[in-house]
Design brief:
Two copies of one chain form a homodimer. By secondary structure, chain A is α+β, with helices and mostly antiparallel strands. In chain A, 40% of the residues lie in helices and 21% in strands.
């Protein structure tokens, strides 16, 4: 059966059941299928908090090797889009999503 | 005469002739009237160069007191939108635009 979330060996993708478990560990993100991506908006009380989040995000990208496809920010918000590097999202993208969620509420 | 680029005392805006001179000092930016804003896309060869530009941009925002209304970036590009804090763009926004242009070509 052709799944909504197609997988190929090259992308080291999550299976559908893995994806469900991984998504549960990264609450607050919305998931798109085409292209496979995760999106979340983070809001902050001040520009200083926004900057601190962006700095930690940059560090996490460097340590995880996952680079957000797009980051859109203003004084008090950051919109993050994590896209699949292969045909489907991999555990690495979900892990970064979960970590960013923990960071924003820390 | 009502200019295309309306001004009010509160925003410390540039006059039309000042704006022309200031815009000439910040080449490569496109200027919108409604809302008054400057936009430019910067492209880089690597994520490391993109990060370096973003870090300098953050420093310039802090030193100038002008915060971009929106910054949108991915691995090798940064889109910057500078909006007027008052009714029209002020010399401060044009100065930041010019400095970012110099930085990108340095």
């Amino acid at each position: 059966m052709q799944a909504l979330n197609p997988t190929t060996p090259s992308g080291n993708p999550a299976t559908a059941s893995e994806a469900t478990a991984l998504a549960a560990a990264a609450p607050g993100w919305s998931c798109s299928e085409r292209p496979p991506s995760l999106f979340r908006r983070f809001e902050f009380a001040s520009y200083a908090q926004t900057r601190a989040f962006l700095d930690r995000l940059a560090e996490l990208q460097e340590s995880s090797g996952v680079t957000a496809q797009n980051i859109n920010f203003g004084r008090t918000y950051v919109n993050v889009t994590l896209s699949a590097m292969g045909a489907a999202l991999s555990p690495a993208e979900y892990a970064l999503a979960a970590e960013l969620g923990r960071l924003a509420t820390a």
